[in-house]
TrEMBL record:
Subcellular location: Secreted, Extracellular space, Apoplast
Gene Ontology cellular-component terms listed: apoplast
Cofactor: Cu cation
Main localization (coarse): secreted
Keywords assigned by UniProt, alphabetized: Apoplast, Copper, Glycoprotein, Lignin degradation, Metal-binding, Oxidoreductase, Repeat, Secreted, Signal
Record protein name field: Laccase
Domain of life: Eukaryota
Function statement: Lignin degradation and detoxification of lignin-derived products.
Molecular functions (GO terms): copper ion binding; hydroquinone:oxygen oxidoreductase activity
Length: 563
């Protein structure tokens, strides 16, 4: 018996009604069907109207509701002028890379006038994930939440909230973003920063023409609410807070955490965070607010986006209280927040950290500049891992692997940097060229991998949120400066490290992750700053099949888009 929830969008209360209906829906409803129509719609923000690409004419798009163990079918039909693909960010897609979505990695994009059905199972996951376009910069407007409930009869490992809502943080450009990006690429420079951040598609009342474009959430005094917070911004890590209220963090990237209380959270592009808030303050109106964190000399859109926490029966004429956000460059708040994140690690929800490592990888993250005769300064800004700028293929890598198509990629991505140097010393502004290639790292099925991601001072140090498709991983260590392989592993947390799908590498520092390569296929790994991804800060792992059919990639669907 299928369930269609596309109508569950609009006002907050309509969403609450739909969610309550979902909770009471019979357990046998194991197939959730959705129709995603990619359409262009005129939308106005900040006194500017422009056509944007949407799903079903909604901005943000519809929420996918499912329960752990469900099968989800999303039929996507493309009515826009752009080719499109959708990534289901954080869903593991076991053996089923065909449904993962990154264009030219696991599929070729869906062309105008064509359809493709994403068919996937939600296995062993519950919590908040999200979906977004995974081609060009279309995810600026093509994104939405995924809310996964636990299996029937399984409780949350925290007090049941009275209600819940999604808080999706995004970015808005007054001009057409694809036009801005194309113009910047021709000059070899980055495009302009966004004109505003948004909460659920709305910039908030601090911006011009935005009184009606302010998200508001009504609460009742004494009740507890669950916020599913998603950073769908393209290029900014964000601090988020609510005036006068504490937040209790209970989940990150759809993995339960040891609960802790905080006034502010830090959330990088691609990450999700579930928090509980109790409406325990004097009934009034309170601003929720978000603003970028950036502790490097890199330009960002540093304006503050707001929404309103509105206590029931309080007049809308009451001016909301404004919270105090950390300074945009407050590294101490950022580092101390991330140190508090730990897996729940209970018998029911264990942290299965690999203790033995089969493969040690060390990847340096660098910015660079390659010659470009037509560019403004004679160079094109670029980015690399181990000094390799990834070149996107013309054929999906998963298809090339599965059908043994020659000449599309090589499997010689290096495990170590080509030339060791003082990675986080003085800024390096010479010899910034990178090598270009479509180079993958081949990994044996079910082997354990430890990957250290090392920031460098090539042009500048900067924080980088890295997302690995197809897997969760454990963040076993992090530090400032250069990773020391003889000393730093002794300080790793191998008991209850946070389990994520997207992790921030600190500015001028390193992060160590571990995962078990138990998912055969071709899996993208990239910086989730769209600018850096475009510049080539990405690669892919080719995880080999195991010995049995149950440990091998499933055959592609019949309607897989042609290349």
């Amino acid at each position: 018996m299928a369930m269609q929830l596309d109508s569950c969008f609009g006002s907050f209360f309509l969403c609450i009604f739909c969610f309550a209906w979902f909770l009471t829906f019979p357990a046998e409803a194991a197939v959730r069907k959705y129709q995603f129509d990619i359409r262009v719609k005129n939308v106005s923000r900040l006194c500017h109207a422009k056509p944007i690409v949407t799903v079903n004419g909604r901005f943000p798009g519809p929420t996918i509701y499912a329960r752990e163990g469900d099968r989800v079918l999303v039929k996507l039909t493309n009515y826009a002028k752009y080719n499109i693909s959708i990534h289901w960010h954080g869903l593991k897609q076991f053996r089923n890379g065909w449904a993962d979505g990154p264009a030219y990695i696991t599929q070729c994009p869906i062309k105008t006038g064509h359809s493709y059905t994403y068919d996937f199972n939600v296995t062993g996951q519950r919590g908040t994930l999200w979906w977004h376009a995974h081609i060009l910069w279309l995810r600026a407007t093509v994104y939405g939440a995924i809310a996964i409930m636990p299996k029937e009869g399984t409780m949350f490992p925290f007090p049941k909230p009275h209600r819940e809502t999604e808080i999706i943080l995004g970015e808005w450009w007054n001009s057409d973003i694809e036009t801005l990006v194309n113009r910047a690429n021709k000059m070899g420079l980055p495009p302009p920063t966004s004109d505003a951040h948004t909460i659920n598609g709305k910039p908030g009342s601090l911006f011009p023409c935005s009184l009606k474009h302010t998200f508001s959430m009504e609460v009742e005094a004494g009740k507890t609410y669950l916020l599913r917070i998603i950073n769908a911004a393209l290029n900014d890590e964000l601090f988020f807070t609510i005036a006068g209220h504490n937040m209790t963090v209970v989940e990150i990237d759809a993995v339960y955490t040891k609960p802790f209380t905080t006034r502010v959270i830090l959330i990088a592009p691609g990450q999700t965070t579930n928090v509980l808030i109790k409406a325990d303050q004097p009934p009034s109106r309170y601003f929720m607010a978000a603003r970028p964190f950036m502790d490097a000399p890199v330009p960002v859109d540093n304006k503050t986006v707001t929404a309103i926490l509105h206590y029931k029966d309080i007049p809308k004429t009451v001016i909301p209280s404004m919270p105090k956000l950390p300074a945009p460059n407050n590294t101490n708040v950022a580092l101390s927040y991330n140190k508090r994140l730990k897996s729940l690690n209970t018998p029911q929800f264990p942290a299965k950290v690999p203790l033995k490592v089969d493969r040690h990888l060390y990847y340096t993250i660098g910015l660079g500049a390659n010659p470009c005769s037509s560019c403004q300064n004679g160079t094109q800004l670029t980015a690399s891992l181990n000094n390799i700028t990834f070149v996107m293929p013309k054929v999906g890598l998963l298809q090339a692997h599965y059908f043994n198509i020659k000449g599309v990629f090589k499997t010689d991505f290096p495990d170590q940097p080509p030339v060791p140097f003082n990675y986080t010393g003085a800024p390096l502004t010479a010899n910034l060229g990178t090598s270009l290639g479509t180079r993958l790292s081949k990994v044996a099925f079910n082997s354990t991998v430890e990957l250290v991601l090392q920031d460098t001072n090539l042009l500048t140090v900067e924080s980088h949120p890295f997302h690995l498709h197809g897997f969760n991983f454990f963040v076993v260590g992090s530090g400032i400066g250069n990773f020391n392989p003889s000393k730093d592993p002794a300080k790793f947390n191998l008991v209850d490290p946070p389990e994520r799908n997207t992790v921030g590498v600190p500015t001028g520092g390193w992060t160590a992750i571990r995962f078990r390569a138990d998912n055969p296929g071709v899996w993208f790994m990239h910086c989730h700053l769209e600018l850096h991804t475009m510049w080539g800060l990405k690669m892919a792992f080719l995880v080999e099949n195991g010995k049995s059919p149950e440990e091998s990639i499933i055959p592609p669907p019949m309607d897989l888009p042609p290349c």
